[in-house]
């Protein structure tokens, strides 16, 4: 048992010897076909939506105790987002679940090829501390919509939120199919030792390597939602007030504990003072009573606070605003002589989850987009891309792999099962495949091969000394 850091709840850790039993029970229920009907999935999905809808007030205090979250951030940044995500699934998943015919192919139309999206089995969702409900319940909703049973491993770093959800989930969802496991490293280790049919993990690259290695032992597919450096490339001609306003909001949200949060801003030397001045103006507008009374969340752990504090103490730069225990939202402004230097630095490090460009110049947008790699590319705002259900959300390289949001997470947690049916008359057309083999049958088989166009005598040649200009 672990006592929470707040006073609202005591989080009970799941006994380690119970974890395999939970998984086996869910697997047995899944195999019974209970979740196969789309109507039952829709019923469970709606009940999950009501779990959130009915308990806005219930979750307010746990978020305050664990993360110091202001009511506005809890409501708009977490709970409203869950309802939006789940309602989008609720309204669309039956359409996505319908069999899909692939593109027409004259040679194989007789087989009637069809793609059917079927469930995978029992899904494990390892949730994060920064958005402990938004991400875990969004992925749980996707598991329901795709017909998978699901185990959620809640973060032990948000004990009050985890305890509240553990209390509420059995009142709304089928416990034979959807369960919560709570605990720290020993419990997480026990969970990862088991075989799952898909694992969704949100967190740091270091822990993601542990998850991926454990999954590899069972050849389990994984979806890893991580973070990254997330740089901003700021055009010196850009409106600096607008830039500072949107960036300071982003960095203040959840005390900067967001996977898509900006890590640093690249700006030409000649524009850094104007940008810094804009930040001071916006900071005073956002927090007129000073940092002590600013409605900014706290960091989840003392270790995180110590790390951020040491970074601030070691900087050679000047703190232009704040700096009085803002609990994490530090935003370095990095002046550069040339944006190519910033591009080169970015590309020499791990690929970010998001690259941001603040500019009204279409050429500048294209330059940054074409010369960087990232999960997303956003112009003149930050974090907002994570709220759009019709866009895929995912990283590349160190920032993760696998796509989530809307139909993308539906496809991620579905197995695209190829089906076809060979008609009786096919042997009249493809009788050449049966022995005995003859020269005539070889010619018939060759007739199925598509025509290959000739190579262009110039481009792509490997002749020595040849150049395309």
TrEMBL record:
Catalytic machinery residues: 225, 259
GO MF annotations in UniProt: aldehyde dehydrogenase (NAD+) activity
Pfam entry (one): Aldedh
SUPFAM superfamilies: ALDH-like
Gene Ontology biological process terms, A to Z: aldehyde metabolic process
RNA-binding listed as a keyword: no
Keywords: Membrane, Oxidoreductase, Transmembrane, Transmembrane helix
Regions crossing the membrane: 122-145
Keyword set includes GTP-binding: no
InterPro entries referenced in this protein's UniProt entry, alphabetically: Ald_DH/histidinol_DH, Ald_DH_C, Ald_DH_N, Aldehyde_DH_dom, Aldehyde_DH_NAD(P)
Top-level taxon in the UniProt lineage: Eukaryota
Annotated Gene Ontology cellular component terms: cytoplasm
Domain Aldehyde dehydrogenase: from-to ranges: 27-323, 324-416
Family to which the UniProt record says this protein belongs: Belongs to the aldehyde dehydrogenase family.
UniProt name for this protein: Aldehyde dehydrogenase
Lineage, highest ranks first: Eukaryota, Fungi, Dikarya, Basidiomycota, Agaricomycotina
């Amino acid at each position: 048992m672990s006592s929470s850091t707040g006073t609202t709840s005591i989080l009970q850790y799941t006994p380690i010897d119970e974890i395999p039993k939970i998984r086996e029970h869910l697997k047995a229920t899944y195999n019974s076909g209970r979740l196969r009907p789309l109507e039952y999935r829709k019923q469970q999905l709606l009940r999950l939506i009501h779990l959130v809808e009915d308990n806005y007030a219930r979750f307010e205090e746990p978020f305050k105790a664990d993360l110091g979250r202001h009511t506005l951030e809890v409501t708009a940044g977490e709970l409203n987002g869950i309802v939006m995500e789940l309602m989008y699934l609720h309204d669309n998943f039956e359409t996505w679940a319908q069999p899909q015919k692939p593109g027409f192919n004259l040679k194989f139309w007789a087989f009637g090829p069809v793609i059917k999206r079927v469930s995978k089995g029992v899904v494990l969702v390892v949730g994060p501390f920064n958005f402990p409900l938004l991400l875990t319940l969004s992925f749980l909703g996707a598991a329901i919509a795709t017909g998978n049973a699901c185990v959620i491993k809640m973060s032990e770093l948000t004990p009050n939120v985890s305890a509240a959800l553990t209390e509420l989930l059995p009142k709304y969802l089928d416990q034979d199919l959807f369960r919560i496991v709570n605990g720290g490293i020993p419990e997480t280790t026990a969970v990862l030792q088991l075989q799952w049919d898909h694992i969704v993990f949100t967190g740091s690259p270091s822990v993601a390597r542990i998850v991926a290695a454990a999954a590899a032992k069972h050849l389990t597919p994984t979806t890893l939602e991580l973070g990254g450096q997330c740089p901003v490339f700021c055009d010196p001609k850009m409106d600096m007030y607008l830039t500072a306003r949107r960036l300071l909001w982003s960095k203040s949200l959840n005390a900067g504990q967001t996977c898509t949060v900006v890590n640093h801003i690249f700006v030409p030397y000649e524009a850094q003072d104007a940008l810094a001045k804009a930040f001071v103006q916006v900071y005073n507008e956002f927090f007129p009573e000073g940092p002590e009374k600013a409605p900014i969340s706290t960091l989840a752990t003392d270790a995180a606070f110590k790390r951020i504090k040491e970074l601030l103490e070691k900087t050679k730069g000047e703190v232009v605003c704040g700096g009085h225990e803002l609990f994490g939202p530090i935003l370095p402004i990095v002046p550069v002589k040339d944006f190519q230097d910033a591009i080169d630095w970015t590309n020499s490090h791990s690929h970010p989850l998001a690259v941001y460009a603040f500019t009204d110049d279409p050429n500048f947008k294209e330059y940054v987009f074409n010369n960087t790699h990232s999960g997303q590319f956003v112009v003149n705002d930050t974090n907002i891309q994570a709220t759009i259900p019709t866009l895929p959300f995912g990283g590349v390289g160190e920032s993760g792999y696998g796509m989530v949001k809307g139909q993308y997470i539906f496809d991620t947690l579905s197995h695209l099962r190829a089906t076809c049916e060979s008609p009786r008359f096919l042997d009249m057309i493809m009788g050449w495949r049966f022995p005995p083999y003859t020269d005539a049958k070889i010619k018939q088989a060759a007739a199925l091969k598509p025509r290959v166009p000739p190579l262009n005598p110039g481009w792509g040649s490997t002749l020595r000394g040849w150049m395309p200009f």
